[in-house]
Amino acid sequence: MKIAIGCDHGALDLKNQVVGHLEAKGYEVKDFGTYTAASCDYPDFAGAAAKAVASGECEKGIVLCTTGIGVSVTANKVKGVRCALLSDLMTAKLTREHNDTNMMALGAGVVGPKLALEIVDMWLTTAFSHDERHQRRIDKMMAYEA
């Protein structure tokens, strides 16, 4: 599986830990930056990662900033993306089972590295349920893009 990842300066350290963790598990990672701790604008990196997911270049995406809010809002502006801001294991599991999210966001100032990696693992290993009620709701949600 190919995973897009992007962050701003506030989440650079956590992004690098997530990249190393993913690569150690055999995932292919496309890193859209940032690559330095210099102040930058999160939409540049979250948007690029989201476009890679929406186009099919990457199957899933992870975006990070200090709170996770800005990158999740940015990613959700890209047609075809369903990005969930995650800070616990239950929502990581349910957003895949119920919402079939293709992107997730983390706040480096909200979750520590150990929990962040557990959230990533839960999100990546949980399949969509394919229950009719969940698909119906996703279809209604995505219709708002039209």
Describe the protein.
This protein is α/β, with parallel strands linked by helices. The chain has a single domain (2-143), classed as 3-Layer(aba) Sandwich (Ribose 5-phosphate Isomerase B, Chain: A). It is 49% helix and 16% strand. It contains 6 helices and 5 strands. Strands 2-1-3-5-4 form a 5-stranded parallel sheet, sandwiched between helices. Helix 1 (12-24) links the parallel strand 1 and strand 2. Helix 1 crosses helix 5 and helix 2 (42-55) crosses helix 3.
Characteristic key phrases:
single chain, 146 residues, alpha/beta, Ribose 5-phosphate Isomerase B, Chain: A, five-stranded parallel beta sheet, 49% helix, 16% strand, globular
How are the SSEs placed, and which strands pair?
Layout: E1 2-7, H1 12-24, E2 28-31, H2 42-55, E3 60-65, H3 69-76, E4 83-85, H4 89-99, E5 103-107, H5 113-125, H6 132-143
Parallel strand pairs: 1-2, 1-3, 3-5, 4-5
Helix pairs in contact: 1-5, 2-3, 4-5
